[in-house]
Each structure stands twice: as structure tokens, then as C-alpha cells.
């Protein structure tokens, strides 16, 4: 986490730049890269942590993917791939809901407790299509979201209109780690395979 100072409305203002893990489907790579370029690098809202779908998972396919201990799998994903991030942003395209790695990353983000009483990641979803449609949200995310983002752990947002707006969302997600963790629902089994896409009707 890095901190920088700015001047806003003639007053000394301190802003916090969070480390954010980006969860996405590689079929949306162009739109994802644009989001990270604009908000992560040019407007300096967050420090991105991301990997292409499947990249790195092969490094522990024998001891994690084939493991029958979901808690262990989630711990390994957090320890090996989340880095120093405290927030997960799921960038939603039309096919994201069908991807098992996205499900795993959401499940790992919601994991809490264990040694040291680890906090969950703050979690949100943003529609890459720049619309306010809530169709085709990943099932595990749906279990932690409510229409209108009221009384839920994981809010869904349309594409941000400004850096200030996204920064506010990220801070809300960061604070939810302690104020809304009791609302987390994460008991469903992790997806073993990619499922048939509800939009395309195929298994990508």
C-alpha cells in the first residue's frame, strides 16, 4: 500500500492507494487491460495484481487442484497469487460467470479466519460492458450480493464514471472486511470444471 498527498478544494487531503487483485476471464483481456491502464496506471487509483487465466495454476496442479481439501486450495491461491492485495475486483464480461478460476478466486477472496484470524478480501464486481446489467454474475458472487448493494458483502457496479468514484468503491470494500464480514456466504463447493456459458451455450 502506498500513500500520496494531494490538495482537494484548498484542503490538505490524504488518499490511500490499495493493492487490488483483478479477477477476470482471459476472453475479456483487451477490456481488462484498458481498465487497468486507465484506472490503475494513468489515474493511479490502485496498484493492480493480476495474472492471465490459468497462468501459474499449473505450478501446483498436483498438490492443489487435485487436493480434496478446499480450505488448503484457497489458502494456496491467496498465498501464491494474491500478493499483498486486500481487495478483489471481478471484472465481468458476458462469459465470466462460467469460469472455474474466477469462482476459485472469489472463494479465496471470501475466506477468513484460520491462523492469525485472517481477514477476507474486500470484494466487488464491475461490469466491463459499461452497462448496469446484473445478468450473468458468477453464482458465488450472487450469494454475497443483493439488488441495490444494500446489506450485502459484495457490491456490483456499472463501469466507473471517474477515478474518484472507483476510489470510493474500493475504500468501501476495504472497510467491509471488518464491518460486513458477518454477511459472507462461502460454503458452496468450488467449481471443478468450467460450466457451459449461459450466453454462448458452449464451454469455452
Terminal Cα span = 36 Å
Could you estimate the helical fraction of the residues in percent?
25-40%
Number of strands: 6
**How much is the radius of gyration in Å?**
17 Å
Summarize the structure in words.
The chain contains six helices and six strands. It has helices at 29-42, 61-65, 70-81, 100-110, 139-142, 163-179, and strands at 2-8, 11-23, 46-49, 87-92, 122-127, 156-157. Strands 1, 2, 3, 4, 5 and 6 form a six-stranded mixed beta sheet that branches. Helix 1 (29-42) links the parallel strand 2 (11-23) and strand 3. The longest helix is centred in the last third of the chain and has 17 residues, at 163-179. The radius of gyration is 17 Å and the shape is globular. It starts with a strand and ends in a 25-residue tail after the last helix.
Summary keywords:
6 strands; alpha/beta; 19% strand; 204 residues; 6-stranded mixed sheet
Can you summarize this structure?
The chain is an alpha/beta fold and 204 residues long.
Secondary-structure topology with pairs:
Layout: E1 2-8, E2 11-23, H1 29-42, E3 46-49, H2 61-65, H3 70-81, E4 87-92, H4 100-110, E5 122-127, H5 139-142, E6 156-157, H6 163-179
Helix pairs in contact: 3-4
Amino acid at each position: 500500500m502506498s500513500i500520496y498527498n494531494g490538495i482537494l478544494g484548498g484542503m490538505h487531503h490524504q488518499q490511500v492507494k490499495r493493492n487490488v487483485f483483478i479477477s477476470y476471464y482471459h476472453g475479456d483481456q483487451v477490456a481488462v487491460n484498458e481498465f487497468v491502464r486507465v484506472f490503475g496506471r494513468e489515474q493511479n487509483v490502485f496498484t493492480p495484481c493480476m495474472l492471465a487465466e490459468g497462468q501459474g495454476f499449473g505450478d501446483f496442479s498436483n498438490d492443489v487442484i487435485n487436493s480434496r481439501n478446499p480450505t488448503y486450495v484457497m489458502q494456496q491461491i491467496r498465498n501464491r497469487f494474491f500478493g499483498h492485495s486486500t481487495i478483489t475486483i471481478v471484472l465481468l464480461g458476458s462469459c465470466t460467470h462460467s469460469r472455474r478460476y474466477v469462482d476459485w478466486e472469489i472463494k479465496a477472496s471470501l475466506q477468513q479466519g484460520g491462523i492469525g484470524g485472517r481477514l477476507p478480501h474486500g470484494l466487488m464486481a464491475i461490469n466491463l460492458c459499461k452497462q448496469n446489467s446484473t445478468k450473468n454474475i458468477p453464482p458465488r458472487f450472487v450469494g454475497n450480493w443483493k439488488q441495490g448493494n444494500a446489506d450485502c458483502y459484495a457490491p456490483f457496479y456499472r463501469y466507473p464514471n471517474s477515478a474518484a468514484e472507483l476510489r470510493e468503491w474500493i475504500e468501501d470494500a476495504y472497510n467491509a472486511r471488518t464491518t460486513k464480514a458477518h454477511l459472507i456466504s462461502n460454503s458452496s463447493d468450488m467449481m471443478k470444471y468450467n460450466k457451459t456459458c449461459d450466453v454462448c451455450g458452449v464451454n469455452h
